[in-house]
């Protein structure tokens, strides 16, 4: 059926379905969204949607998993590029994570609000990817505690607090607001340094040229 | 109609409708919940629900507004009881706010996920109450900056970060988990002190008897 529009191949239709489904999930929630409407908004038939995805749940899993994987990769790459000290690596990770949230707020918002509606098996497929992200932050925080740079009693609790703080960005950040995504990311990196007891975190967040690169 | 069950007066039915609606909104989301099911779960008729609320939106508004008002009051009272220094007042506010979130996680979760489905007018009725909470925190943070205790460039951004961090508690806190609600509240008060650049916040959060009182 896709051959009717030769320019947009199967991959094009698939991506268009994902994009419109994300918009529908974001605007009216997973429960209210229907495959029929997603198909209509994507300019294809419901049968066409079912060629690519087993059901609505499968579309949500794909959206959430790929967003989480992208965020994980952005964070890992930022850590690799950072100076090899625990505070620099921790700040780079938070900055990249926050920047992804600010620039992909719909995906992050849907992840935070709609994940709970997935069945257990599907939820685990998404949660696995999110757990990997959390583990990454836990290791970075533990390195800071070991080096004596960070002063926190409960590493997991602190990491959860920082990731919650970053997740909140999706709720309020606007591209046309007073702060750019990079400024928000830098500010949050400073907060995360302060939160773990690293002196001079807040108010002294380094504005970093590398953060701007990550937007591209 | 309520006179059929003389023990549970009109107030009793109304509260039962609110309680079951909260459970339904939490479990399946605002869109999927129906007045018919809410009535069934509350053990009354749909007509009975409409005696108390104009529609499903009105029920959600009532749940969210009263939760926000309760949280505001708990926070204000904690601030009044705290030592009159900016760091003590800031910590007391965050502790009370976090404690309310941990002990009323369903209300807070529904507020974070379902608020966006309300119509503009209804949303404003809820948001007004939430704005009052934010304003309370902004004033406390500004007092800390003025006294030289806090070191932050952007008070509003810092307050948003702290409130997002606290909102996240509703997502993960379990009453049967490793930390009690009071321990979480104390830990988060410490994080919030550190975040605004007050020395010795994290890892030195005071365990406070007054926080336990607020649970009652």
Largest interface, counted by CB within 8 Å of the partner chain's CB: A-B, 39 and 39 residues
Largest beta-sheet details of chain A:
none
Helix content of chain A: over 70%
Could you say which structural class the secondary elements and strand pairing of chain A correspond to? mainly alpha
- Indicate the CATH topology of the largest domain in chain A: Tetracycline Repressor, domain 2
Oligomer: homodimer
Mean pLDDT of chain A, to the nearest integer, reads 87
What is the domain total for the residues of chain A?
2
- What is the CA-based Rg of chain A, rounded? 19 Å
CATH class placement of the largest domain in chain A = Mainly Alpha
CATH architecture of the largest domain in chain A: Orthogonal Bundle
| Overall geometric form of chain A | elongated
State the helix count of chain A: 10
The termini of chain A sit apart by: 34 Å
Order of helices and strands of chain A: HHHHHHHHHH
Fraction of residues in β-strands of chain A: under 5%
Low-confidence stretches of chain A: 1-8, 203-216
Q: What is the assigned CATH homologous superfamily of the largest domain in chain A?
A: Tetracycline Repressor, domain 2
How many E-type strands of chain A? 0
Protein name (chains A, B): TetR/AcrR family transcriptional regulator
InterPro entries (chains A, B): Homeodomain-like_sf, HTH-type_TetR-like_transc_reg, HTH_TetR, KstR2_TetR_C, Tet_transcr_reg_TetR-rel_C_sf
Domain HTH tetR-type (chains A, B): 11-71
DNA-binding region (chains A, B): 34-53
């Amino acid at each position: 059926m896709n051959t009717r529009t030769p320019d947009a191949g199967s991959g094009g239709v698939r991506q268009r379905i994902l994009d419109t489904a994300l918009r529908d999930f974001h605007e009216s929630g997973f429960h209210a969204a229907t495959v029929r409407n997603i198909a209509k908004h994507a300019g294809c038939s419901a049968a066409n949607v079912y060629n690519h995805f087993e059901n609505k749940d499968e579309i949500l899993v794909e959206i959430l998993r790929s967003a989480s994987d992208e965020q994980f990769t952005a964070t890992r790459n930022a850590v690799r590029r950072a100076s090899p000290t625990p505070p620099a690596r921790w700040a780079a990770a938070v900055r990249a994570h926050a920047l992804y949230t600010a620039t992909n707020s719909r995906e992050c918002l849907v992840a935070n609000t709609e994940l709970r509606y997935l069945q257990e098996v599907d939820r685990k497929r998404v949660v696995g990817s999110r757990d990997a992200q959390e583990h990454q932050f836990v290791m970075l925080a533990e390195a800071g505690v070991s080096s004596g740079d960070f002063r926190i009693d409960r590493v997991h609790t602190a990491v959860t607090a920082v990731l919650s703080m970053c997740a909140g960005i999706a709720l309020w950040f606007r591209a046309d607001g007073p702060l750019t995504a990079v400024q928000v990311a830098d500010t949050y990196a400073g907060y995360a340094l302060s939160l773990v007891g690293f002196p001079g975190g807040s108010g002294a967040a380094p504005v970093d040229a590398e953060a701007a690169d990550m937007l591209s």
